[in-house]
Design goal:
Chain lengths: 271, 360
Amino acid sequence: MKQKKHMDYLWYGLVLLVAIPFIFPLAWIVLASFKTQAQIVTTPPLWVFTPTLENYQSVFVDQQFGKFLWNSSVIAVGSTLLSLIIGLPAAYTISRYKQKVLGVFILLARLMPGIAYLIPWFILFTKLGMVDTYTALIASHMLVGLPFIVWIMVNYFDGLPHELVEAAQVDGCTLQSAFLKIVLPLSVPGILTASTLSFLFSWNNFMFSLVLSSDRTKTLPIAIYNFVSYAEVSWGSVMAAAVVIILPAIVLTMAFQRYVIKGLTAGAVKG
Amino acid sequence: MKKVVCEHIVKRFEGVTAVNDFHLEIADKEFIVIVGPSGCGKSTSLRMIAGLEQQTSGDIYIGGQKVSDKPPRDRNIAMVFQNYALYPHMNVYDNMAFSLKLQGVDKKEIDRRVREAAEILNIAQYLERKPKELSGGQRQRVALGRAIVREPAVFLMDEPLSNLDAKLRVQMRTEIAKLHHRLGATTIYVTHDQIEAMTMADRIVVMKDGVIQQIADPQTIYDKPANRFVASFIGMPPMNFIDCRLEKREAGLWLVRETMAVALPAAWAERLSQRFGQQVVLGVRPENIIPADAGGPLAAKVEVVEPLGAETLLHVRLDGQSLVVKAGPDYQPDEGQTITLSFDMNKAHVFDHETGTTIV
Ligand SMILES: Nc1ncnc2c1ncn2[C@@H]1O[C@H](COP(=O)(O)OP(=O)(O)OP(=O)(O)O)[C@@H](O)[C@H]1O
Ligand SMILES: [Mg+2]
């Protein structure tokens, strides 16, 4: 028993050691976002201080981060939803009719460096007069989200017993209604994983947004980038902005971590 | 009119012919069992009738209607799968009600039918449970329940009992038979278990390598197998086969080996007339070999004795050939002992040496 306890402590110690490099910067950012400029630059760093909301105020009021937050959300949610609507039936068809080659092609689209698409897209959307529209940004972000959703879901659907769909067909379903009534409800964990990942990819995306967005549709990563390039850097505000962009990612990952970890290893082991 | 007709169905997968010239006419209310070894095309045949697999050629009629190109939902069939295939996200009630809801049957009627089926199958107390909270036997009942609430023209069952333990299998076998008497629905049942076939079937279809070997009622299959394969597949322990040469002597027809010679009934002479001097195969079921301590015409050495309680199985060696003999429970010779045997030739069979077709 005692032995076991020692082992436990050792284990937690190790975990802590590994976690520190990840947690420390995060903690520092969060703390700094509540400090004044003077408090931030003090050495040694202050751990106890009176927090101020000044930074957040400057971020949301002066810098209009509310708008960017909204833009990021619309684009991330929009591209994820659209990817799901197209990707789920596509993935099911690939799985059901064993079109592995097709699946690999779709994944290839994802593995190509995104920058390869950028120039054609920029030209295309400029000609169409669609630069700086949600449509253009959602479409470009789907380039990442859609293949991911297809890839994860093909693996997930492969794991579902095919007999269930056959039973449903005998019970009176068409292939489509069997998909809606049997396959989808059983795939909720997979769908959550795929959606979370797709959402995060879009949320964190920098390159596509940098090229295709402008004042109207600017997303959070671009906003922060512009922020930093201001002449005088207000560290407190930058940190507050960073918190605004990190927070949803953390909340989402925490909420669905069980599924996300499964999704990240999907296909590694046939479960 | 719930007849099922399969007209010369063929199914080819790339390269392999899984089912060849499957021709079967099933009467209303009939219980048909399709048996055969693994991979002989039983499931494929059933799945074509269900519409889950498209036949390469041939036609299928259910209740007088051609359904060859119809999807499963338009064939008025219900199917019970080997792995139950219950919908895991629905409770027992919803599993059973699913097809009725799709048909748009009204709520009260659905409730009535589900509860009635649950009553018949003894699962009324589990209606709220999810499939994973049930035992294998209970799940199988739910699967049956899901099929019977439909009141379909035909029941299709693909090895529904093979995932159950031996005792439960026997019990469910009886229950399915009872259910069939009660509902009188046309049923096509696939199994590789010959006991299920013998006990449940009105008629048995024996398949091998995608080809139907024989279609007949259980007793005929047992007494008059169409060929050596059917003879060996049905019956436990299986029929003994002895390679012999057919000889015509003064005293009638004889089957001979090195040291063994068996006289054949005179009535067989005509059917065997083309084969004098040829190699043939004698088939005798274990219960048609009669052991005697002395006086029988054939001397055999006992190798293994297996007392089973109600009977004793003797593994003996006769003229270099291993045979199984079914004897009474009291007959227990020593291993190594030499005994004599006689064959009940009126119940024996003679098969063609090459093709295995039954000659007598
Ligand atoms: N989808 C398929 N593609 C290719 N070949 C198949 C397919 N399904 C079945 N087969 C082949 O068809 C033949 C018959 O298969 P089937 O499943 O009907 O056998 P079975 O009699 O049901 O056997 P078991 O008792 O093992 O279930 C087998 O040789 C099998 O390999
Ligand atoms: Mg099978």
